[in-house]
Fold these 3 entries.
Entry 1:
Amino acid sequence: MRLSSGWTILLYLLLHGGATVCTVKKLGSNPGRFANATLVRLAEFLSAGYKKGVRPVKDWRTSTIVAIDLMVYSILNVDEKNQVLTTYVWYRQSWTDEFLVWNPEDFDEVKQLSMPTANVWVPDILINEFVDVGKSPDIPYVYVTHEGLVQNYKPIQVVTACTLNIYNFPFDVQKCSLTFQSWLHTIDDINITLMRSPEKLRDDKSVFMNQGEWELLHILSNYKIFSVDNDDYYAEMKFHVVIRRRPLFYTVNLLLPSIFLMVMDIVGFYLPPDSGERVSFKITLLLGYSVFLIIVSDTLPATAIGTPLI
């Protein structure tokens, strides 16, 4: 009887322990809510061993080609006094990451995935004419295709220095430059190209808001390779934003009053010299010219090369 009871207890422990082990193994192999999440499996596959601080090429002699594109959304401000241009642009850049490649057949035919920008390598392409930090929304994701193409699209408020030619004010046309280049990498590491043809870039006004003071004429592009010390060569892409001022506001508020003052000045010569009204009339016109000069001088820069025609 005692032996039977001992065998019974031993059999119970073996069965209970085996069931516990099976339960643990079953729970350990079940990923829970991520059981059938293809995007989670793909994200883990791409992030395994990925080094975002290293340029994503298998052969270090291969240069990473970054294709960029620019679309002007709005001309926010043109500060003639301080020679500063503030624009809101849609900036796009794409490059090939050789370490972010997968076979779509292994991941339910997923051919595109959004990943956090902080987890992938991003080229250090900046605008040389930056004079202030713009208020731009933070876009925390980039799109990655199964071939390794990374697409980084974001809007930027650009505050840049621009040499303004105000000789023909208010009938002036300005051309401001936005120069994109890698701040550190030479052309052997990072090269820059256009995402679209220069002809399509030049005439694209599809997203431009055409209700402000300035009108967008076209955007010109120019690729250049330069060297600072004749040793290391860098690639840069320069966009020339050509804008034209709408002169209606200044015509009504500046030119028409000025023409009226000139006409009244000519009429003043027909007043009799012996009348006492001629001197006071001329003094009033001189006061009007002084106010006109103060208004124009507050608008135009003090360090302009040459004198405005107005």
Note: The helical segments are 2-28, 38-47, 198-203, 248-267, 277-299.
Entry 2:
Amino acid sequence: AVAEVKLRDDQYTLDHMRAFGMYNYLHLDSWSQDNVYYVDQFGRVMNLSVTLDTALQKPREVFRLPTELTACDNRLCASVHFSSSMWVTLSDGTGRLYLIKSGKRGSGASEKWEIVFNEELGSPFVIAHSVSFIKSGRHSVAVLLLRVEKDELDAKGSGFHITLEWVTIAEISKEGDHRYEIFKRRVLQGKSVPHYAAIEPNGDGLMIVSYKPFKFMQDKDEKLEENDDDAKATNEKKDPLYYWQQTEEDVTITVHIPQDITKDDIKVRFSPENIYVTLKDQPPLLEGKLYSSVDHESCTWIIRENK
């Protein structure tokens, strides 16, 4: 049976329900799409092969967690994320993160999962996403951990905040000894569980879709390095060039225009594949190829509230 973890009495908010209460225990391997995995109540990672879209093979053990799951009182559900065709990140739900070299998966008895890194990282979490990449000739795995934590300062809200911890684990070579260590840890905080949170494929950034914003928290022991130019750039943060929203029928793009611009100063050109917006005597405000073709003869534009 699956290692199911029911919500406790102190996990009563909508965010707890969205993060842990509706958790899908079945993990799809994107690199081997006929294979799904789950963690069972004995702490074994079980593999199921799907054949003919409907038939399931018998569950097969590929890995066993070295810890006793039920020994931890405040544990969350165990979570698995496949970082690449050879690498797996695994949380046992107690606050410990494992980085595992799996070799080629889904190939039957030859599959052998080997722990190359494991460390206690504080309070329990689930793995939201992970990626494996090579930068400057060094292999790294970046992992995004999700927690719902008590917030003593939040008197008017739910009394909790959401933490996303972005951990980068990198291969270190010392005197011929290859091992993996934590290279960087960054923490973001927000007030709602994201609908989507992922690390960019090269490990350079995060993509988060959430009802409420997330902000980086400054580490107590590590001041953020920034020179004066960076500080100025941050202070003079500009609004996005445009906003867009989409339904099944329409795409609506909103562009802010400077004051004292009239309708006669604006030129908008639509074509099936492109859009072009320019203001009088200025370089184009917006131009480029659209993601997909549009019915350009039905496209139109208006000025709202003179801006």
Note: Residues 220-227 have pLDDT under 50 and may be disordered.
Entry 3:
Amino acid sequence: TKNDILLLSYLSAEPGANDPIESAVRFAAETDLEILKSRPNKHEVPGYKVTGFVPFNPNTKMSNATVVINETNEVFRVAKGAPQVIIKLVGGNDDAVHAVNTLAGRGLRALGVARTIPGDLETYELVGMITLLDPPRPDSAETIRRCNGYGVEVKMITGDQLIIAKEVAHRLGMSRVILDAGHLVDPDKSDEEITQHCERADGFAQVIPEHKYRVVELLQKRGLLVGMTGDGVNDAPALKKANVGIAVHGCTDAARSAADIVLLAPGLSTIVDGITTSRAIFQRMR
């Protein structure tokens, strides 16, 4: 049921993390589930005890919790993460794939939730999907348009699935030439070919953090000047490598120290202000 999904997602959500997805999941569960409303201790779920937790990792694209049911002492695990990862974990499910694609076509992100079957901590079964609406910021489309007007090409790099990336690109007024990140590390292609793909593409989907660095590296070898935005520890190498590393609002300390520019307010429109100001300074110097 809906309540089962919410409870299991809550158990596998990182407490106190200021991750927007985890916050959304926790808020939804706390708003809907009676069991979570009237509990004396906000850090416990009545009847359950979380004994182990592996936080979300951009490489595995999931988080994992080990939970004990207090009454029976039965132990089970819950995994929550990117739909393609969870569907693979449970050994495939065509209905789930279809549901995820249908949602993605409407611009909705899905999170898969799976739990282990009784008596076996290695075999998972699919519980269901949570849907999230993660729209681009209202100023993003305008920022991209202004950047293009200044001759700056914008590429989107996201961990989301290809179909969602295309939908978001469309909303932002970009072309839908989005490549799967697998193209960046394809052993059958020469660096030259990959660089061409990199230049032509409007973005990359299903990336892991190493791919960001790779994009910067390939474009720089072409003699292009590259600015890169990021917020996480994993983005730090790409921010450091880029000609201009831009740490966005709410970023981690690692990203902040690796970047050249740190944005203090949400949104990316400040980047365009930086371009106009620096061009004005350059013109005066000339």
Note: Residues 139-285 form a domain with the Rossmann fold fold (CATH 3.40.50.1000).
